[in-house]
């Protein structure tokens, strides 16, 4: 292998490992969020029960429970937003992986001498290029979605 091919192969492996590590981190965080959701649901259920059952409790106690319940709802909404962001990141990772695979495939077709290419090779090269453009467009849409979401939060 010439040096540039080894370098390209090494960079491809490194980017695959980075994507894999990011995917694992996202998956761990999604599991943590799911567990936190369950805990918040349990706390919320207890507070709702207290609010319904304790009609003759002090107004201060009632207000405190209501504030705690609102805090739990706010915390749950924040977690839902984070979960949504992570799901977008998962989609982005999948598209990034597809793009890398299509890049490699296209590169193999482009490295072939034009005189040696069969009509099937040329058709496959065009199809791969078309798929690559579609994947890039999908990634662009995801990035625009993230940007719109970020701006709406501001």
TrEMBL record:
Keywords: Coiled coil, Membrane, Monooxygenase, Oxidoreductase
PROSITE patterns: BMERB
Domain of life: Eukaryota
Coiled coil feature spans: 23-53
Record-linked InterPro entries: bMERB_dom, F-actin_Monoox_Mical
Signal peptide stretch: none
Keyword Oxidoreductase: yes
Gene Ontology MF terms: monooxygenase activity
BMERB domain location: 13-154
Chief subcellular location: membrane
Listed name of the protein: MICA1 monooxygenase
